[in-house]
Design brief:
Structural class: mainly alpha
Length: 92
């Protein structure tokens, strides 16, 4: 496996864990700024970078796993966007 693929797989795994821990441990605090929008931007940036690296190194070991991880992160970004919209509309 190329070092760039290994590094990006580690970044994707770290972001995945950060989002899981943030979602599980987030307490609702009144006046604090919501973090869901920041998480969505972070997830989209990491997922698009992982997808581009996986696409450029197609056929090499780990490239397809990198693209699959990018799709999971895009799904998580959609989830965080929906949570942010729900909070913004005060449906929470």
């Amino acid at each position: 496996m190329r070092p760039i693929i290994i590094a990006m797989l580690l970044v994707e795994a770290a972001i995945f864990l950060v989002v899981i821990l943030t979602t599980a441990m987030k307490r609702s605090e009144g006046a604090r700024r919501p973090i869901w929008t920041s998480l969505a931007v972070l997830l989209i940036i990491v997922a698009s970078t992982g997808n581009m690296i996986g696409d450029r190194h197609y056929g090499q070991p780990g490239a397809s796993m990198l693209q699959a991880g990018a799709l999971v992160l895009i799904g998580m970004a959609i989830m965080t966007i929906m949570i942010a919209v729900r909070q913004r509309r005060a449906l929470d």
